[in-house]
Amino acid sequence: MARYHVSVTGLRLKNWLHVFLFWRHAMPSYNQARDADGNVLTDVLKRNGVHHTLTVWESETAMKRFLYRGAHRKAIKAFPKIATGTTWSYASDEIPSWPDALAQLERHGKIYSAPK
User: Which of 11, 16, 97, 110 has its CA 20 to 30 A from that of 104?
Assistant: First the structure.
């Protein structure tokens, strides 16, 4: 069994006018992830106009406890209006570097659609 559960995302704003709405949701979501039980790492990176998140969790269960609660739940609901993107989560024995996490996202990422 892998030691960690990793989640990596890439979001591209649909319009530059959405930047304030994006940050209104992104910062509370970042803080929620960072402070969540079972979170090992929370990091962000902007590359080529894409806003990336990298979170590492003690388990998939810990990640799922965070996923649909609080500020992140509100961000998920707002997402379809403001951005498009991909997401990927996977089991890993190591905490990935950014290049490794982005390679995983590029190879395996799924186009994200918010739950209804």
Answer: 16
